[in-house]
Design brief:
By secondary structure, the protein is mainly beta. Helix content is 4%, strand content 48%. The protein has 1 helix and 26 strands. The chain starts with 25 loop residues before the first strand and ends in a 27-residue tail after the last helix.
Length: 313
């Protein structure tokens, strides 16, 4: 479910901290984008909301039908300066990457791939699963301290859960209510999948974090504001508690973190700081250099998209 980011998501080269506090809940619709064979609902980035903490990209896929041999069908492609976080609600998908990883991901299991200075991967049908596929893929921008480092991959089959008011939250990344995920994070961050049975539930927050909700199924009310699937509710900073009212069985993704102070430039599958960095990555993939390695995939390699500032683009 990786990218790509398009020209609609391209900030000015001097874009800085894009995470001001919001006194009220700000609800916006996701926009439709195409990834592999599927249409996804893209909640981040938006022109008016680039990041929530270090979370800089959020795609919500499905539910959609897949077969043993026809799944996401996203061929080998590169990443730079980010971590991909893949979480399925239903179905199965196969991850392969240039580190040699080959991992079937299932509901309740977390895939986290760190790109650092460069990695490539593909997302495929499993060869065995047929049915519905429903999930999210998120990107986390890496800070200067780690974004030039080595690529890495981790898969977590067990994640901590917290129960409050009959609702159950699975902590994907970071910590909530004393439950800490084993997944790597390079900045203060949290990501939670909350399953709400209906009614009211409250969750402790960190006032120094900014937060947002992506509704996956069902319907919610936050501070009197209704939120529906396909929408992002930005909650701002300064909250110590989040009170949710679910109209019935509901799944929502809570994303939060310290506002990301470093300016970001995102193009295609790259998260960088300058056009020069993206140009170097683009040329490395276009010329099949060793920088991004090779993925042992039956799917065709996805060609590089030329940045719009390059001559002839």
């Amino acid at each position: 479910m990786s990218g790509p980011v398009t020209t609609l998501d391209l900030p000015a080269a001097d874009a800085g901290l894009a995470a001001a506090a919001a006194p009220d809940v700000e609800v916006t619709d996701s926009r439709r984008s195409t990834v592999g064979r599927f249409t996804v609902r893209r909640a981040l980035p938006r022109r008016d909301r680039r990041t929530i903490g270090a979370w800089c990209f959020a795609d919500h896929l499905g539910p959609a039908s897949v077969t043993e041999n026809a799944g996401l069908d996203v061929g080998p492609h590169p990443h730079l300066g980010l971590q991909t976080v893949t979480w399925l609600l239903d179905g199965q998908a196969l991850h392969r990457d240039s580190l040699g990883s080959e991992q079937v991901i299932k509901p309740g299991q977390l895939n986290l791939m760190t790109a650092g200075a460069g990695v490539s991967h593909a997302e495929e049908a499993t060869g065995a699963y047929r049915g519905e596929l429903h999930g999210v893929q998120l990107w986390v921008a890496q800070p200067d301290g780690t974004r030039h480092g080595a690529a890495a991959f981790e898969h977590h089959t067990e994640l901590p859960r917290v129960e409050r008011d009959g609702a159950i939250a699975t902590v994907l990344v970071g910590e909530l209510a004393g439950a800490r995920s084993p997944a790597r994070h390079d900045t203060p961050l949290v990501g939670v999948d909350a399953a709400l049975p209906g009614g009211r539930s409250s969750w402790p927050l960190r006032p120094e974090f900014e937060y947002g909700l992506i509704l996956l199924t069902g319907a919610l009310t936050v501070d009197g504001q209704p939120v529906r699937p396909g929408q992002l509710a930005y909650l701002g900073r300064g909250r110590e508690e989040l009170v949710l009212t679910a109209d019935g069985p509901t799944r929502t993704l809570l994303l939060g973190g310290e506002p990301f102070a470093e300016p970001l430039l995102m193009w295609w599958n790259f998260v960088a700081r300058s056009r020069a960095e993206i140009d170097e990555a683009y040329l490395a993939w276009d010329q099949a250099s060793e920088r991004f390695g090779a993925v042992q995939s039956t799917l065709p390699r996805i060609p590089a998209a030329a940045p719009p500032w390059r001559p002839g683009s």
